[in-house]
Amino acid sequence: MSRVVVAMSGGVDSSVAAWLLRRQGREVLGVFIRHGQGPSDPAGAADAAEKLGIELRVLDCRQQFDRVVEYFIDEYAAGRTPNPCIVCNAQIKFGRLLEYADELGAEFLATGHYARLLELAEGEVALCRAADESKDQAYVLFGIRRRLLPRLMFPLGGHRKQEIRQLAEQIGLHAADRPESQEICFVPDRDHARFVRQHGGRLDTAGEIVTSDGRRVGRHDGFERFTIGQRRGLRVAMGEPYFVVRIEPETRRVVIGPKEQLAREQLIAAGANWLVDEPAEPFRCRVKIRYRSRPKDATVEPLGGRRFRVCFDRSRYGIAPGQAAVCYQGDRLLGGGWIE
Known about the structure:
Blueprint: E1 3-7, H1 12-23, E2 27-34, H2 43-52, E3 55-60, H3 62-77, H4 84-103, E4 108-110, E5 115-119, E6 125-129, E7 152-153, H5 161-171, H6 192-199, E8 207-211, E9 216-220, E10 243-248, E11 253-257, E12 264-274, E13 283-288, E14 296-304, E15 307-316, E16 324-329, E17 332-339
Parallel strand pairs: 1-2, 1-4, 2-3, 4-7, 8-11
Antiparallel strand pairs: 5-6, 8-9, 10-11, 12-15, 12-17, 13-14, 13-16, 14-15, 16-17
């Protein structure tokens, strides 16, 4: 009987994931990751573990998580839009936690992510989109090292969210009716700018709001409040919809313009991580530029040095430096990188 470590937060997804693995007859050991930022109480996970009849351990990852927070602050200070969930997954959940699974003698590590793993020929494992497209989280998993895929499990990947909630109610889990969080775990109030200000020392990011032709139309109290493609919250009256088209950290200016100025047909991504053999020639695929966006048809050209160029068939709007460009063929995730 294989031993599986399950990352348990106390929420409905990770709790049901543990139950599904128990039902398969596996030896399940729950682990709560203590990150030290915002809500970090293992009580909910402990309640779920007790209900499921499994052991729960607490893994102190505060030191590692501090680096994720530093990345988050540094990216905003550079005028970029970070995605800390991708970094946390790669460095902590499928980094430090997998090391801990080794220490516990576990063969597998499971999480409550909505994604699927498909076994191919000769032991190859493909990371694929979840059956529930509205909940698919494969995008935030692109940074996982390819060699680790055979050791991972995503028990929820073939289920829809409503099925999982129904299972939680049948099991009697307290988390069954808990509202689903859509926010970064260490910024639950969604005020990213406040968090950056509180944790970024004397960082001064206030400056001017200008149009793309240089006309000053207002001031802002911190460019970390903005992201490329943003329309709401500009607090300037232009007579027509204007969007953030550029952030200039060196001048602290936020540049706005009409939607057509957001149109881009290309992007370059760095820090590529491939879950297939690293491509050497241009290839066709679909590329996703944000967690909530849909993949679009494109040609990807490898540039060397873990960089690649994406040429979209049609212009995309709101391509934001700091976000991930992730490549798919059908449901399979091929790899991705960070938009420059």
